[in-house]
Amino acid sequence: xxxxxxxxxxxxxxxxxxxxxxxxxxxxxxxxxxxxxxxxxxxxxxxxxxxxxxxxxxxxxxxxxxxxxxxxxxxxxxxxxxxxxxxxxxxxxxxxxxxxxxxxxx
Length: 106
Hints:
The protein is mainly β. The protein contains no helices and 13 strands. It has strands spanning 10-17, 22-29, 35-36, 41-43, 47-49, 51-52, 56-60, 66-68, 74-77, 81-83, 85-89, 95-97, 101-104. The termini are far apart.
């Protein structure tokens, strides 16, 4: 078992050898996208824009509480509760999730 940290992006070669043969396996590790929210609390009807370090799409885990525009990251608070938002990087398929945003009544 080999575990990589997010900072360990790059190409790694693993060599398996026995006295009679060997084999090499290359593994490409891609860093997860960096995401953030400028706020942790919104009131119903308020908006904020999520931030990412690359091109991709956003999705809300609770769209009835807080919706998100898939391309712009604009979040709209709709109902009381909590939501997180997952960003998927277009070029790699790697994803990251924001910390929760709490939606309070007006």
